[in-house]
Amino acid sequence: DDVKGETIYKFPKGTYRFYASEGTKEKYKVSNAEAFPSRTLAFIAKDKKDVIIDGDGSKFIFYGYCQPFTFEDCENVTLKNLSIDWEKPLSAEATVVGRSNDYIDIKVDTNLFPCYVRDFCLYFEIGDGEETNLTYGKHTVYDASTMTVAPGFADNIMISSAEALGNDTFRLYLACVVRENDPPRIGDVIVLRHGGRMHSGIF
To answer: How confident is the model at residue 135, as a pLDDT?
Structure first.
């Protein structure tokens, strides 16, 4: 806040870790996102002009739900030489290992996507003590042979409940009937959206 004029903020090359619990809470309306009382911000700049943030090739790793960069009423801001990622992904991938008209059996790499069933719902850990609920939204099927979205199955699989079958395998009961010849098929990959649309990467 003390710096008013043209400024370069340089991070020595390294890996920097940011936790949602240490972020700033502020109210913002974000397009294509749900309404929330506040959003968690890691970096925030207001009324700045001619600013360069140079990561020098650094990795910025985030934990939990937060908005990495927020610029309000700023002009001529440059972000360069850094990458943004999460230690625990905010969506998950699963391989279809069985199915019927009203459920899908999936296998999840629980080392990469830590998850567990509680009260008939599949929960995912996203870091910093936060977890999200699989039944929140709709999920997308990718054809195993092409790894492209299966026609007609982008963001439309809905889950009503879940059951743990063991060995990182889960049964997801469908909120809608899937016809016998429709995806998902054995071997297909499902991208599981287990959280709300809360934050932008850069706002």
So the answer is: 66
- Nearest residue to 172 via CA among 183, 164, 184: 164
* Half-sphere exposure in the Cβ direction for 103 (13 Å, CA): 14
Lowest mean pLDDT across 66-80, 86-100, 147-161: 147-161
What are the structure tokens assigned to 187, written together? Answer: 């071997």
Write out the DSSP string of 30-90.
-TTS---S-EEEEEEEES-EEEEEEEEEEEEEEESS-EEEEEES-EEEEEEEEEEEESS-S
**pLDDT (0 to 100) of residue 177:** 75
Please count the helices (runs of H) and the strands (runs of E) in the chain: 0, 16
Give the integer Cα–Cα distance in Å for 61 and 63: 7
8 Å CB contact between 67 and 41: yes
* pLDDT surpassing 90 at residue 194: no
Q: What is the dihedral of CA 19, 92, 131, 88, to 10 degrees?
A: -20
